[in-house]
């Protein structure tokens, strides 16, 4: 059977994706090719020739991607820290910028032994599971309100436990519930949250509008309905000296720190940019008692 150069097939895929307006055509073309060939993206150069059926399958997936189907729905996975999680319809696709929240949290906890970590609005479970993987000594708790997302989180948690990670306490719950995780009140070292934060009615790309669950993206007219609940909940859960790290919309670089500063019990409020320099997440510490 005749073989074709993979390099040419990837270049053609990139061209089609660019013309379709896909934001990162080179990366997507290579990741789709790696998925079809069954190798890591960095190993594509080790596969010079592929069969016609591989090229046809790559072009089929490129057509899907050109229609706005998220790359991660096509490949079936998304990465965070050292782990990958399964994703698909019914759950939010983890975004690269959330890696910054993970990195900040891990750095903050580096001197804390056996930390207690809470991930609110866990979606696929990605943050909770990345913390559990990076900190095997931690007790990690995660909360999600959408049963469909929680089912993805359970599947991901089971897979990582199967691979040797410590189990995470995954719960169905609402961050607006004043009794949520009440047994942990005043004991938590780190609360992280990537909540829904886009103001209702904001135009979003088709792959967000049609493939991320609405309740995972939008949160009230100003986008801050869930964030207000998260701040209340975090203040209750954190021990003195414990930290909150909260992702937000790039239009909330002042509003979220202001909300945190309005809480007397929070101190050292800071806002942090993403890799594109846009305001992306806020952090604060719960005041020590002394
Ligand atoms: C932006 S997604 C983030 C998911 C995950 N943390 C990540 O970074 O990929 C927000 C998640 O919060 C969940 N959510 C929305 N409102 C909630 C609430 N009131 N209580 C708990 N979870 C909520 C949504 O179902 C969605 O899974």
TrEMBL record:
Native organism taxonomy: Bacteria, Bacillati, Actinomycetota, Actinomycetes, Pseudonocardiales
Catalytic activity, as annotated: L-glutaminyl-[peptide chain release factor] + S-adenosyl-L-methionine = N(5)-methyl-L-glutaminyl-[peptide chain release factor] + S-adenosyl-L-homocysteine + H(+)
Record-listed substrate binding positions: 194-197
GO molecular function, one term: methyltransferase activity
Organism of origin: Actinoalloteichus caeruleus DSM 43889
SUPFAM superfamilies the record matches: S-adenosyl-L-methionine-dependent methyltransferases
Domain Release factor glutamine methyltransferase N-terminal, chain residue ranges per copy: 9-76
EC number: 2.1.1.297
UniProt keyword annotation of DNA damage present: no
Superkingdom of origin: Bacteria
Binding site for S-adenosyl-L-methionine: 144, 194
Keyword Transferase belongs to the record: yes
EC class of the enzyme, as a word: transferase
InterPro entries registered for this protein in UniProt: DNA_methylase_N6_adenine_CS, HemK-like, N5-glutamine_MTase, PrmC_N, RF_methyltr_PrmC, SAM-dependent_MTases_sf, Small_mtfrase_dom
Name of this chain's protein: Release factor glutamine methyltransferase
Function: Methylates the class 1 translation termination release factors RF1/PrfA and RF2/PrfB on the glutamine residue of the universally conserved GGQ motif.
Family: Belongs to the protein N5-glutamine methyltransferase family. PrmC subfamily.
Keyword annotations from UniProtKB, A to Z: Methyltransferase, S-adenosyl-L-methionine, Transferase
GO biological process terms, semicolon-separated: methylation
